[in-house]
């Protein structure tokens, strides 16, 4: 085996470890959607009330991710990731023990701090592990953790929760978080992200209008996805008649198609560029969400629509991440922390938007709301290509230091 081959295998192995970490965080986030009716019944709360714990979780991550980058600049990535995994495990355990919405929310908040430390750090590390020409593929491997969380984690958690109770999947996640902290601490001996950077330098990416517009597109894209996914039980109820098994199958098909979309996205982004790859995927998502509304009573129709939507939805993230990293490779860690913030802001606004759509027009209006958000995301993403920064990121840091 040549030195290059050995180095490549080691890189792939480390990327898989990072993907495993994002799988755990993603499963913890996505499994709530399938278990929402059971959790609400167990906690003697409405589904709407429980859905707002998703907002609390997301807001904490949105605020904590950049705060961690600012307050802990000298902390090595491996320490941040391992600590994040342990906090995630603690939060999942607290959630599993909850007897009311209040403690359920506390557990979600603790897990959110763990995700805020782990996910943006893992994404930034992934971008550093391989050569620039393989950056899209590296990001795709780590992104596959979220895809597999949707393809396997959430459906299996939904199915398991429907048989033995919703707490069991959370206990399993807590145990896995404890175990995963060890390889995160041992395998990534990279230097700290930049201890000499000032607070204003960390905000420097936001001086670039292209970055801000791309982050805005992230908020809208993630909101569009979660408006429908979080309320998938309500959206699909006319076709599933409330069957947990049928809902789990629907989510499994969605996630399996997402694996394909994620796998294709990295290569397409490297070959076609981030703009063509992202806009194509967003266009497919838009069509699928519009189609879900008239298909709400057809289980076969929903299976087809969810499959196409899954492939598109998980093909979107990679080119957007690639776009952000390419705008300022030297400050990828800071930019990706803002990406995480934007992503979780999108998650945070999804429950209120979904509840409003449901109140105004019933569950059939929920996917239409997602389609509108997707259309707005396309416009904002393309606007970023028509802007030029008034100054470079480096200049922004120097002038504001």
Automatic annotation (TrEMBL):
<feature type="transmembrane region" description="Helical">
    <location>
        <begin position="49"/>
        <end position="72"/>
    </location>
</feature>
<keyword id="KW-1003">Cell membrane</keyword>
<feature type="domain" description="Major facilitator superfamily (MFS) profile">
    <location>
        <begin position="14"/>
        <end position="388"/>
    </location>
</feature>
<dbReference type="InterPro" id="IPR050189">
    <property type="entry name" value="MFS_Efflux_Transporters"/>
</dbReference>
<feature type="transmembrane region" description="Helical">
    <location>
        <begin position="332"/>
        <end position="353"/>
    </location>
</feature>
<keyword id="KW-0812">Transmembrane</keyword>
<protein>
    <submittedName>
        <fullName>Putative MFS family arabinose efflux permease</fullName>
    </submittedName>
</protein>
<feature type="transmembrane region" description="Helical">
    <location>
        <begin position="276"/>
        <end position="293"/>
    </location>
</feature>
<feature type="transmembrane region" description="Helical">
    <location>
        <begin position="139"/>
        <end position="164"/>
    </location>
</feature>
<feature type="transmembrane region" description="Helical">
    <location>
        <begin position="12"/>
        <end position="37"/>
    </location>
</feature>
<feature type="transmembrane region" description="Helical">
    <location>
        <begin position="106"/>
        <end position="127"/>
    </location>
</feature>
<dbReference type="Pfam" id="PF07690">
    <property type="entry name" value="MFS_1"/>
</dbReference>
<feature type="transmembrane region" description="Helical">
    <location>
        <begin position="299"/>
        <end position="320"/>
    </location>
</feature>
<feature type="transmembrane region" description="Helical">
    <location>
        <begin position="244"/>
        <end position="264"/>
    </location>
</feature>
<feature type="transmembrane region" description="Helical">
    <location>
        <begin position="79"/>
        <end position="100"/>
    </location>
</feature>
<dbReference type="GO" id="GO:0005886">
    <property type="term" value="C:plasma membrane"/>
</dbReference>
<dbReference type="GO" id="GO:0022857">
    <property type="term" value="F:transmembrane transporter activity"/>
</dbReference>
<keyword id="KW-1133">Transmembrane helix</keyword>
<dbReference type="InterPro" id="IPR011701">
    <property type="entry name" value="MFS"/>
</dbReference>
<dbReference type="InterPro" id="IPR020846">
    <property type="entry name" value="MFS_dom"/>
</dbReference>
<keyword id="KW-0472">Membrane</keyword>
<feature type="transmembrane region" description="Helical">
    <location>
        <begin position="170"/>
        <end position="190"/>
    </location>
</feature>
<feature type="transmembrane region" description="Helical">
    <location>
        <begin position="211"/>
        <end position="232"/>
    </location>
</feature>
<dbReference type="InterPro" id="IPR036259">
    <property type="entry name" value="MFS_trans_sf"/>
</dbReference>
<feature type="transmembrane region" description="Helical">
    <location>
        <begin position="359"/>
        <end position="382"/>
    </location>
</feature>
């Amino acid at each position: 085996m040549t030195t290059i081959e050995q180095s490549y295998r080691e890189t792939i192995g480390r990327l898989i470890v990072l993907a495993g970490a994002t799988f755990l965080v993603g499963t913890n986030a996505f499994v709530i959607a399938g278990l929402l009716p059971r959790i609400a019944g167990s906690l003697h709360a409405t589904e709407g009330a429980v859905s707002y714990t998703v907002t609390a979780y997301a807001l904490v991550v949105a605020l904590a991710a950049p705060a961690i980058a600012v307050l802990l600049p000298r902390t090595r990535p491996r320490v941040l990731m391992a600590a994040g995994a342990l906090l995630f495990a603690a939060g999942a355990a607290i959630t599993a023990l909850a007897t009311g919405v209040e403690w359920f929310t506390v557990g979600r908040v603790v897990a959110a701090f763990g995700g805020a430390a782990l996910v943006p750090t893992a994404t930034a590390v992934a971008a550093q592990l391989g050569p620039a020409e393989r950056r899209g593929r590296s990001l795709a491997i780590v992104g596959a953790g979220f895809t597999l969380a949707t393809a396997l984690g959430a459906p299996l958690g939904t199915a398991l929760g429907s048989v033995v109770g919703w707490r069991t999947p959370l206990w399993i996640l807590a145990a896995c978080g404890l175990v995963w902290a060890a390889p995160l601490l041992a395998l990534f001996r990279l230097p700290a992200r930049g201890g000499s950077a000032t607070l204003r330098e960390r905000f420097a990416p936001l001086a670039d209008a292209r970055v801000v517009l791309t982050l805005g597109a992230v908020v809208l894209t993630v909101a569009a996805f979660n408006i429908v996914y979080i309320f998938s039980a309500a959206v699909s109820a006319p076709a599933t008649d409330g069957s947990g098994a049928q809902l789990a199958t629907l989510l499994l098909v969605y996630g399996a198609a997402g694996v394909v979309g994620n796998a294709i996205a990295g290569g397409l982004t490297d070959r076609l560029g981030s703009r063509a790859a992202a806009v194509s995927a967003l266009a497919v998502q838009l069509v699928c969400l519009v189609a879900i509304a008239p298909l709400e009573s057809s289980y076969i129709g929903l299976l087809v629509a969810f499959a196409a939507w899954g492939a598109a939805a998980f093909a979107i993230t990679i080119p957007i991440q690639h776009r952000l990293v390419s705008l300022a490779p030297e400050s990828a860690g800071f930019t990706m922390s803002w990406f995480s913030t934007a992503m979780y802001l999108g998650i945070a606004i999804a429950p209120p938007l979904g509840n409003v759509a449901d109140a105004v027009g019933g569950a059939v209006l929920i996917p239409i709301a997602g389609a509108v958000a997707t259309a707005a995301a396309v416009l904002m993403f393309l606007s970023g290509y028509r802007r030029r920064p008034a100054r470079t990121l480096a200049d922004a840091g120097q002038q504001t230091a």
